[in-house]
Amino acid sequence: MSTWSPETLARIAGADELRIAPRRDDGTLRAPTTIWVVRDGDDLYVRSWRGTAGTWWNAARTHRTGHISAGGVGTDVIFTPVDDPAVNERVDSAYRAKYGRYSGYVEPMVSDQARATTLRLTPTP
User: Fold this and answer.
1) Percent of the chain surpassing pLDDT 70
2) How many helices (H) and strands (E) does the chain have?
3) Tens digits of residue pLDDT in 10-27
């Protein structure tokens, strides 16, 4: 499994927003959706604010690959679902720390509905 370089990890994690474009059935990329991204250790995570109803999330969950861009970095990634409660607790904390100033939006991002959509981003080898 590939890992993020320290510089790339810092640049993506430091960005307020990330553009995510999962692949379609035919292998082409969907139009990018702007979402939030958080870091836990050496990993990056995203969630769907709309929970499992999020169209970008359903495509990412189904096809497991796509492209992201944030912090001046663009790269292909693998999407891996996360269901570990300990990881989700840390991701909740990361959302609160990074986006707490948006209280009306951060609380839905740490709800059970959004937690069910947590994806780890891994750069493709």
Assistant:
1) 99
2) 5, 7
3) 999 999 999 999 999 999
